[in-house]
Backbone:
């Protein structure tokens, strides 16, 4: 299938990550029940990285979905040996199923929202009281001297290392079903930071046994940044990214 890449997308014009993903699927005339994960993931990540600056508040959901797409893609790339009795169960457990379900739900939501937009046009001459001004909080920023794009770029380098052909072939027969969760990994990360105060970003991935585990660790780090439980900084350009516990958040 040939994909049309001759169009540009402005991320902040989309209401959320599924709005962008749904746009890519419709633009490429893809069957929603048979999503070509490889191409869609590639386009999604490329469009997220075209933003001038990836700031956490506006793009964390896009990054989480991008990481989820990478996880689904990695699972579909791995060969799986099954007994005859396990074949049906495997087919029902297609890694794309949950994504398809969410996309169908989003499609229904989008149709309803378009109906509301039509109604909104009917009331465009009605005046309402303006909202009270919302004063932003003064909490310290969790990202210092860097952007979310720096973190995402480091994560991409780790993924590429894990996908080296030699290592990949050696690990195929040792792959086991991932049994850990994002919640468990966040607890482990916080525990390690409480013991060591600071740790380099890539240290959290050294003992990972699969691409799936790497992605879950990355999602856990994103979640901790979003919750302002950890600070992330870089001493200077090209130096290692460092994570430290946000002591202000811990006291709260």
Residues:
């Amino acid at each position: 299938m040939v994909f049309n890449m001759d169009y540009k997308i402005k991320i902040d014009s989309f209401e959320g990550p599924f709005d962008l993903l749904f746009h890519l699927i419709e633009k490429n005339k893809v069957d929603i029940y048979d999503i070509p994960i490889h191409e869609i993931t590639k386009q999604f990540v490329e469009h997220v990285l075209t933003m001038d600056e990836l700031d956490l508040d506006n793009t964390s959901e896009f990054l989480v979905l991008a990481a989820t797409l990478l996880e689904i893609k990695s699972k579909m790339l791995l060969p799986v040996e099954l007994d005859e009795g396990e074949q049906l169960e495997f087919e029902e457990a297609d890694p794309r199923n949950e994504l398809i379900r969410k996309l169908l739900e989003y499609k229904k939501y989008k149709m309803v929202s378009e109906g509301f937009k039509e109604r909104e046009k009917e009331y465009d001459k009605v005046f309402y009281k303006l909202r009270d001004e919302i004063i932003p909080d003064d909490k310290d920023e969790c990202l210092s001297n860097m952007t979310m794009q720096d973190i995402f770029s480091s994560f991409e380098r780790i993924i590429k290392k894990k996908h080296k052909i030699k290592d990949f072939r050696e690990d195929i027969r040792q792959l086991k079903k991932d049994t850990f969760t994002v919640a468990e990994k966040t607890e482990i990360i916080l525990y390690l930071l409480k013991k060591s105060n600071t740790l380099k970003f890539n240290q959290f991935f050294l003992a990972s046994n699969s691409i799936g585990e790497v992605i879950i660790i990355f999602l856990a780090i994103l979640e901790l940044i979003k919750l302002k439980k950890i600070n992330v900084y870089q001493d200077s350009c090209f130096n290692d990214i460092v994570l430290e516990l946000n002591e202000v958040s811990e006291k709260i």
Q: What stands out?
A: Residues 1-128 form one domain. The chain has two domains: 1-128, 137-252.
